[in-house]
Amino acid sequence: MTRVCTGNRKGPIGDRPEVHVRYLAVFALLLWPAVSAADFLNGGVEQSYSVTPSPDSVPQYWRLENTDHTIFGSQVTYAWKTEGSRAAGLFSRYGRTFGAGSYQSIYQMVNLTGMAAIAFDARLAAYGTSTNLVFNNFDAVLLVDDVPLWTQSVDGTYLDQQVDISRVPGPDPHRIELCIRARVSGQFFVANWV
Question: Whole-prediction pTM value?
Fold first, then answer.
């Protein structure tokens, strides 16, 4: 089954009008189990490994989904964090054309037995040459088994976020996925990743 970070149980994104914007969208996130010692490996994102193209990286024990490196990138970054020394980052590349629904994500298969919630901090930001940039042409999504449990498209810092997973059906392991997804079609010009 091909995953498209749309939350397959909620339906696809659909077509949207073309928009031209001038920034880089960034979804940085720290993830940890709340209430139990579930089988999250490297939830604090302290270890990473390199992926193509260099210098992109992914948190250790996580896998990269939809590896279209021409329009998206991933990075374990020191630029923003709330716990430990690093955070996972997914971002759009500057100067690229995006179709509505295009995405990149990282995921991990996790045993959720006895776990009631996933707690995390997230930062959504846009970088570029304009002074009034906002993270509004992308969605940041946390999914469990293709079901979106948290979605945000407004720039800002989101601390102490929690999603209830006490009713997640089915046997372990479950797929925990972090995704950045284009909400509209457009071209992204001058931008900087900080």
Answer: 0.76
**Chain centroid to CA 49:** 17
Question: Does residue 148 carry a pLDDT above 90?
Answer: yes
Structural domains of the chain in order of their starting residue, each with its CATH number: 19-188 (2.60.120)
Q: Is 129 exposed, middle or buried (0-12, 13-18, 19+ CB in 10 A)?
A: exposed
Q: Residue 146: what pLDDT?
A: 92
Q: Quote the CA–CA distance of 51 and 136 in Å, as a whole number.
A: 28
> How confident is the model at residue 124, as a pLDDT?
83
| Dihedral over alpha carbons 32, 34, 36, 40 (to 10 degrees) | -20
User: Taking the C-alpha atoms of 155, 68, 174 and 115 in order, what is their torsion angle to the nearest 10 degrees?
Assistant: -30
More confident residue, 43 or 85: 85
Nearest to 30 by CA among 145, 142, 112, 126: 142
**Alpha-helical regions (H) of 21-113:** none
Q: What is the DSSP string of 29-64?
A: EEEEEESS----SSTT---EEE-SSTT-EEETT-EE
